[in-house]
């Protein structure tokens, strides 16, 4: 049987680390082979031997040390032969010092022999030219193979030398091993054959190899089959691990989405309940004011009549009293007969009622369930397993929604209600169910409930926690909020409402990391971000005068050196270069910090925004309300004012970026707007509506489809605008961990990187619409 593995070549064995000891990392000396077939120097093994045992440094197998010590381990004659070949080749530079002839000193010559020019492969001796010529003329050596020494040292005759190489007997120097003692399984030379093994059956080495090779090849074929099975098992294990990681990533993303949905729904319910509370208090205050006014009027009339009657009785004469007695008595009777107190006020005091599940410490809105998965060996089964994983996710998501909606039926991903029988209740869920009589009093939603990622509230729904009918009745009201989706756009905005249409990107939190490094003397102040290579960003830290490199997972990759005294403000990466603004200058440097050129900018602007063009060979910078574009040589390629010369002096672009379509997007602080223009300065769209919340527009980034992500620092938001500048809704809010966001950048069109004022960076994956 033939081995399934490919046979290694002699050149590979000589040029690889096969001849190096894995302990001392030097060339093997006195190589000894362990039973696990790993070979090391004899001295190295002696240092590892401890208490009659040693552990192989490679496979960690414990091997007993023979009673005679590590020297009794089998000598690796195969490695010795290769080492002899390597030593013979490693003679150094022939021009620096030529080796001497090995035969000249044996012929009675004084001193060393002449310079060697040839080598006998059979004798393994270096020969001078005269000895080489004579070597071919004797009866005993005329069949020997004599080759050029330079070619031998170059490795031209390695295979031939290896075939003629003979293993030497360790007990009898100069004697080659020629026989195999069959009972002792020991290699013998002629001297060994004569004494202790004289009566033992012995075979010549070639005949012994022919007899034993088939058995070894059969064993090797069996091991090859085992290797194939091990490789298949390893691939199955790796595929199972990959499926686990993929499923864990999906579940992690789902946990993030569900948790964010629960928070959004809870906050929406908070706003609704607070709105109902405010409406109730306002209605009660209005009714109380009316009643107080009526009571104060009646009190004033009664007090005036009583005061007049008391004054007449105390100061009037008899005639005067009697003359007014009838009128006074009539008025006092009239006042006594009137209903002094109006109808009693309804005592409607608000009281918060919590769902029982919120008070139950054992009630978990999110929980994991685990299913045993069988190994899958074909693509069809893989697909089935993937569908099963998605189905399990849907069940988990439905269970979480059922728990947080307090008795409302769980939903599937398409928004339809899932029958209650499809999911078994846990004891926690059973304890958290609302009684039927209480659920009957809760406001009911019309139609099927939408998932968290479905339709968002309209501005009217978000603003108005409207007072239910009968709110002013004397019947006691119970304030119970419904779980709804929070609005992506809290304030009314003009234009088409895309909420719930699945046409907007959505954020998925990826990671968060600080940017302060051990060498920083001050807290970071991030003023610029840009993509820098695959899945890497460049951070402009103005406070520490540094351009720092980070991976999207937060690994620090070093820094790009900046000129002495420069404090980078805005930064952009070009083809093999980095552009940044510092003070009133624009710099272009190489990744190793070499300044290629610098340009002076206007002093009328405190900072200058820098953006790379989509082609990567030009850089745009905002200067005093207009945009200047420079090429890689530092020449001004174009210059324009958004909206034309009529807007001269009316623009102040503090933040600037470019879109993959070649348009420019800037935050105009003078107009308090976001302006979108083409490469000629023609305005495509501009937004200055109520969605800015009265804030100055901040950093802008654009994804690969042209959606604009605008930072509103004062309200801790990042909002989305369409490619023409119309506001679509919120993308990130304070509920996503935003606290005073400063600058953003888009990496690969799929990751939005947001820096905060405290130097922390958040990375969000932009989930495409309808995905």
From TrEMBL:
Residues 472-485 have a biased composition (Basic residues). Residues 164-205 form the B box-type domain. It catalyses: S-ubiquitinyl-[E2 ubiquitin-conjugating enzyme]-L-cysteine + [acceptor protein]-L-lysine = [E2 ubiquitin-conjugating enzyme]-L-cysteine + N(6)-ubiquitinyl-[acceptor protein]-L-lysine. InterPro entries: 6-blade_b-propeller_TolB-like (IPR011042), TRIM45/56/19-like (IPR047153), Znf-RING_euk (IPR027370), Znf_B-box (IPR000315), Znf_RING (IPR001841), Znf_RING/FYVE/PHD (IPR013083), Znf_RING_CS (IPR017907). PANTHER family: BONUS, ISOFORM C-RELATED, E3 UBIQUITIN-PROTEIN LIGASE TRIM56. One of its GO terms (biological process) is innate immune response. GO terms for molecular function: ubiquitin protein ligase activity; zinc ion binding. This is E3 ubiquitin-protein ligase TRIM56. Residues 21-60 form the RING-type domain. The keyword Repeat applies. The lineage of its organism: Eukaryota, Metazoa, Chordata, Craniata, Vertebrata. Residues 374-500 are annotated as: Disordered. GO terms for cellular component: cytoplasm; nucleoplasm. The keyword Protease does not apply. CDD domains: Bbox2_TRIM56_C-V (cd19789), RING-HC_TRIM56_C-V (cd16584). It comes from Mustela putorius furo (European domestic ferret). Pfam families: zf-B_box, zf-RING_UBOX. Its EC number is 2.3.2.27. Pathway: Protein modification; protein ubiquitination. Belongs to the TRIM/RBCC family.
């Amino acid at each position: 049987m033939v081995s399934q593995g490919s046979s290694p070549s002699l050149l590979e064995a000589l040029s690889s680390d096969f001849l190096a000891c894995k302990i001392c990392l030097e060339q093997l000396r006195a190589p000894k082979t362990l039973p696990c077939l790993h070979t090391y120097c004899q001295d190295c093994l002696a240092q590892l031997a401890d208490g009659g045992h040693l552990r192989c440094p490679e496979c960690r197998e414990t091997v007993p040390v023979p009673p005679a010590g590590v020297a009794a381990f089998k000598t690796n004659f195969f490695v010795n032969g290769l080492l002899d070949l390597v030593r013979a080749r490693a003679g150094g530079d022939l021009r620096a010092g030529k080796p001497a002839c090995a035969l000249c000193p044996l012929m009675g010559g004084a001193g060393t022999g002449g310079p060697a020019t040839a080598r006998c492969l059979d004798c393994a001796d270096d020969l001078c030219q005269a000895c080489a010529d004579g070597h071919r003329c004797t009866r005993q050596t005329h069949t020997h193979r004599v080759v050029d020494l330079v070619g031998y040292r170059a490795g031209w005759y390695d295979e031939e030398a290896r075939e003629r190489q003979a293993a030497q007997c360790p007990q009898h120097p100069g004697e080659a091993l020629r026989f195999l003692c069959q009972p002792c399984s020991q290699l013998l030379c002629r001297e060994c054959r004569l004494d202790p093994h004289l009566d033992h059956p012995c075979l010549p080495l070639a005949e012994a190899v022919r007899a034993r090779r088939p058995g070894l090849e059969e064993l090797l074929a069996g091991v090859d089959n085992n290797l194939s099975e091990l490789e298949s098992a390893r691939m199955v294990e790796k595929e199972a691990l990959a499926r686990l990681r993929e499923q864990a990533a999906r579940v992690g993303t789902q946990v993030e989405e569900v948790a964010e949905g629960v928070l959004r729904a809870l906050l929406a319910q908070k706003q609704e309940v607070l709105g109902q509370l405010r409406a109730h208090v306002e209605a009660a205050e209005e009714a109380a004011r009316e009643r107080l006014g009526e009571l104060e009027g009646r009190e004033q009339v009664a007090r005036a009549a009583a005061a007049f009657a008391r004054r007449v009785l105390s100061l009037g004469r008899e005639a005067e009293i009697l003359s007014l007695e009838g009128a006074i008595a009539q008025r006092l009777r009239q006042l006594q007969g009137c209903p002094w107190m109006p109808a009693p006020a309804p005592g409607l005091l608000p009281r918060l009622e919590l769902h029982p599940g919120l008070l139950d410490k054992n009630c978990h809105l999110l929980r994991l369930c685990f299913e045993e998965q069988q190994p899958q060996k074909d693509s069809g089964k893989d697909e089935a397993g993937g569908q099963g994983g998605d189905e399990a996710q849907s069940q988990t998501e439905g269970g979480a929604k059922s728990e947080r909606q307090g008795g409302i039926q769980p939903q599937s991903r398409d928004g339809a209600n899932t029958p209650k029988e499809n999911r078994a209740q846990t004891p926690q869920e059973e304890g958290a169910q609302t009684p039927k009589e209480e659920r009957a009093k809760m406001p009911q939603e019309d139609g099927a409930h939408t998932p968290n990622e479905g339709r968002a509230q309209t501005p009217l729904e978000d603003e108005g926690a409207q007072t239910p009918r009968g709110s002013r009745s004397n019947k006691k009201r119970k304030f119970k909020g419904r779980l709804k989706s929070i609005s992506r756009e809290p304030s009314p905005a003009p234009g088409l409402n895309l909420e719930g249409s699945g046409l907007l990107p959505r954020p998925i939190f990826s990671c968060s990391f600080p940017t302060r490094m051990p060498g920083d003397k001050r807290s970071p102040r991030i003023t610029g971000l840009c993509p820098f290579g695959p899945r890497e960003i460049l951070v402009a830290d103005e406070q520490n005068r540094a351009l720092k490199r980070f991976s999207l997972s937060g690994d620090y990759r070093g820094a790009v050196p900046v000129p002495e005294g420069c404090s980078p403000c805005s930064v952009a990466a070009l083809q093999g270069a980095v552009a940044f603004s510092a003070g009133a200058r624009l710099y272009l440097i190489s990744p190793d910090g070499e300044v290629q050129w610098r340009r002076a900018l206007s002093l009328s602007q405190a900072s200058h925004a820098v953006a790379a063009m989509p082609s990567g060979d030009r850089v745009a910078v905002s200067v005093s309300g207009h945009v200047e574009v420079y090429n890689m040589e530092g020449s001004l390629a174009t210059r324009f004012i958004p909206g034309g010369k009529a807007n001269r002096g009316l623009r102040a672009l503090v933040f600037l970026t470019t879109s993959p379509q070649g348009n420019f997007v800037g935050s105009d602080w003078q107009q308090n707007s976001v302006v979108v223009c083409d490469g000629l300065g023609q305005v495509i769209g501009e937004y200055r509506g109520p969605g800015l919340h009265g804030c100055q527009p901040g950093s802008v980034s654009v994804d690969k489809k042209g959606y604009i992500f605008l930072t509103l620092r004062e309200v801790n938001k990042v909002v989305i605008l369409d490619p023409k500048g119309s506001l679509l809704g919120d993308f990130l809010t304070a509920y996503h961990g935003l606290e005073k966001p400063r600058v953003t950048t888009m990496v690969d069109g799929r990751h939005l990187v947001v820096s905060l004022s405290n130097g922390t960076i958040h990375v969000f994956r932009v989930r495409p619409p309808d995905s």
